[in-house]
Every structure is written in C-alpha cells, then in structure tokens.
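W.,

You were right to be curious about this one. When I first looked at the sequence I had no strong expectations either way, so I just let the prediction run and decided to look at it fresh. Below is the sequence, 370 residues in total, followed by the output.
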Amino acid sequence: MRKVLVTVLLVLTVLSLFSAVKIAVILPMTGGISAFGRMVWEGIQIAHEEKPTVLGEEVELVLLDTRSEKTEAANAAARAIDKEKVLAIIGEVASAHSLAIAPIAEENKVPMVTPASTNPLVTQGRKFVSRVCFIDPFQGAAMAVFAYKNLGAKRVVVFTDVEQDYSVGLSNFFINKFTELGGQVKRVFFRSGDQDFSAQLSVAMSFNPDAIYITGYYPEIALISRQARQLGFTGYILAGDGADAPELIEIGGEAVEGLLFTTHYHPKAASNPVAKKFVEVYKEKYGKEPAALNALGYDAYMVLLDAIERAGSFDREKIAEEIRKTRNFNGASGIINIDENGDAIKSVVVNIVKNGSVDFEAVINPDDLK
C-alpha cells in the first residue's frame, strides 16, 4: 500500500512539473477587423516572452479566432471555458464582441481582461470583466473638446455604424459634449462592410461642416475619407481609436492625410521605463514602431499576471478582485489604474496622419474636460 502511495505521489509530482496555466486569448485574427487582432496578439506575445510563468507555473496561451463576428466570439468563449478549462480570458477588441463574451465569462466566474473594448456596457454590472483601456464617455468627450476648442470646429457631421455598439456609444458621447459646448451636429448612419457612402456624404456636405467625425473602424473610416475628399470636402476628418491600424493608411492613401484620431498610445508619449523598453523590444522584434493595440495587448497580459501574483493563488474570484485593485501600474501604454467598476482611468492621446505615417499630436487628461 505504501509503495502504491509513493508511486502515485511521484506521478502527481511529475505531472505538476509539466502543468500549465491556460489563458485564452480571444481575438479577431481573420475577417473585417483582423488587423486589430494581429496587433493585440503581437503585444501579448512580447509580454509572454518576457514573463512566461506565474506563481511557478508555465503560462499557456490558447489563441481563439472570432473571425470578426459576435457569434464566433461567444462560441470561442464557451470553448475556452468548457473545453480548454482556461483560468482567465484576454479579449476581445471590438466592444460588440466583448459584449458577447462578457456574460459567459461572468456566469462562469472567469476573469476577463479586454485590451481595447471601450464601450462602458462591457464591464457594467459585472465583477469578473475588466479592461486596461479608457472608456468611450471620456474618449468621445475628449474629441469633442479637442474639436471645439483646439480646432475651432463649430459644425460637425457624425458618421455612426449602426451595427457596432462601440460606434453608437462613442457617437452619443461626442454629440452630448459637443452640443453642450455650443456646437451643432448632423448625424448620418452606415453599416459595417458598406462600400458606397455617397448618400451619407451628400447629406453631410449640405450641412457645410467644419469637420466629419467617423466613429467606426478603419476599413469604413478610410473609405469614407476617400469619398469625402473626392467630393471636395476640405475640412477636418476625425475618428476614434477604431482608426488606429496601419491599414487605415493603406486603404485611405492621401485621403487620410491630416486625419486626427483619439487613441490610447503613441511611442513618443512613452514616459515610464516599461513603456520605453516595450518600444525598443517591439522595434527589434517586428522592425517597426508599436501602435496602441500592440501596447494594450502587452498591458492586458501583464495586468492579469500581476493580479494573479497578488492573489497568491489561482482562485478566479480573488484574481478578478485583484485586477480591480490595480494601482499605478507601469504599462506599455502608460500608468494604469483600474477602478472598482473594472474601468481603467487614463489619458487620451490624439494622433495625426502625417506624411503617410501616424504622428503624435496631443494628450487630453481627465482634468481637461472639467
């Protein structure tokens, strides 16, 4: 009996040496917004290479593709939890996709950290879902203040993608702040995947706007910009963080020159040692400067592992609690503080497309909106 017990203990010891902590990474690796998924994944890989273990266990990343679809996002979450038995989830990028995952994570009490889903509903009323990015009420208001005060825009046409919760919410927050400041707004609507925006642009041009604000994602932002310029629009073109992908310039070409967009990051704004090191490592690995989603992917992984270490165990509830106790965390995208609602309190960066690349323009802090 004792020999059997010793044998069992030896087997368990050997198995423990090869055990791994599984973390699901749920991203749009193919489909309409696949560029977002690839950028987040690059950042996560750098973080994983830098910190491959937690509490003495190897971290295994389980990458699941949502194909840029809400239904696939929900399916991926169910598979991650039921089949892969993951400890936690990193994902998604699009708010609509995270909104499909969040109820599943919450019901199963699995900690979830989204790198870039900015719609406030993603975390609202939930204990296990948090984020390392700012939320749209701040992003929308920040662009409204920047457009009205910095650019002198008084009349703006807002293009809203009715299929994206992110776009609908961001549009509303911008409009509320811009009209509060005294600006005038005209709103037009489109759908993800649309190619022809002549009808919306006809309405927009008749309003004689100082600026066009497009709250969707980079494929439509680029196409709307091209068609607007072709019709002779010479005012400002503005966007949210959905514009932050290299494909914006690839698709938009000269039409997106001068486009201004709010986002989470620019390498020139890197101030803390972690942020500066991330820029160096990323450039060495990929041969180019990092973008916001690269940094946010890195941060999502590092914040999650930091929370696990502070929890001192693999207890999911404790991990979720510790994520929301994150304070003054030095991340690649800047200093991260996560509040009791799971939302990160951070500044907004304004970038500009200049000479065929993305350059730094300004920083808007929470105090600037008061």
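Here's what jumped out at me. The chain has two domains: 2-134+271-338, 137-263+350-369. And, maybe more interesting for your project: The longest strand covers residues 57-65.

Coffee later to discuss?

I.
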